[in-house]
Amino acid sequence: MPIKTSDARKSKTFLLMLKKIAVRGIRRRNTLYSGKMFEVLDRLIDQRLKQRQEHGCSISTESKDTLDTLLNIIQEKSVEFDTKHIKHLLADLFIAGNDTTSITLEWAMAELLHNPKVLSKAKLELKQTVGKGSPIDESDIARLPYLQAVVKETFRLHPAVPLLIPRKASEGVEIASVTVPKGAQVFVNVWAIGRDENIWDNPHSFKPERFLGSDVDFKGQNFELIPFGAGRRICPGLPLAIRMLYLMLGSLINSFDWKLEDESMDMKEKFGLTIQKAKPLRAVTIAI
Ligand code: HEM
Questions:
Q1: Which has more pLDDT, 285 or 64?
Q2: Last residue of a domain, one of 34, 51, 81
Q3: Does 130 sit in the ligand 1 pocket, CB within 6 Å?
Q4: Which of 66, 169, 204, 252 is most buried by its number of CB atoms within 10 A?
Q5: Which of 148, 228, 233, 273 to mutate to test the pocket of ligand 1 (most atoms within 8 A of CB)?
Q6: CA–CA dist 188, 141 (Å, integer)
Q7: Are 77 and 197 members of one domain?
């Protein structure tokens, strides 16, 4: 049925109103939550400055963490830098590092519970290497090739930032007979690269074995696996993220047995700037 002009105009107005309300809602929540985050960061910085005053030293000679190092820079006055810069820098790190790491951990656990044979192999490696139920140390990681392969396979199928951060071509360039004009915005579809049949055997199966004895790594040198990006803007949090993932995932499966709350787990994805599990993983622990 043809839509009358007046109806079309009404729908357009209605959609514009909805858009405005939705944007206002997001903006309001954004302001509320970022305000809360900044309060926490302000408190943290103030506490540390107070501690330094109480100890009668403006500069900590024994730098303990990132915040101490940054406060030293202010107090040395070597560069123009103040607590506002520190607050925003910490906020950047918090935003960029939080969601990405927890999303990857959730996918890794979901894939392990979805593939019990893979989970058993990972648990056996941990049992033989660090001992069942024992805490995992950073120095153990090099001796856990199967756990490393599980994490790589998780990055291949579930890169937390599926299109990386958009790029803009500073010059016109031809890549693989495609012309990218100057100024074009370029998205790198890492999610699709990870599922490309021309690159990966049986790309939709979760098979960490494909990385055993392979040199392919996620550090920006192998373009078939770039969950952290590559080049000058590669994720600066990579070394931290990867250590946290090995330690958290290893500890979770070495210290507990796990059972899915619902055996028919839904593995659907929810696309956005990051790619989350559409339905959060629900699993219960059985202490061992
Ligand atoms: C599994 C965890 C993580 C993944 C998958 C990830 C992924 C990424 C990706 C894809 C980019 C864009 C790179 C590009 O476009 O080439 C990026 C940028 C960035 N990441 Fe991460 N990240 C993770 C954890 C972290 C952590 C833990 C931190 C900090 C504590 C962090 C801090 C940053 C920052 C500051 C940028 C922006 C860098 C720039 O624009 O120059 N990330 N990350």
A1: 285
A2: 81
A3: no
A4: 252
A5: 228
A6: 30
A7: no
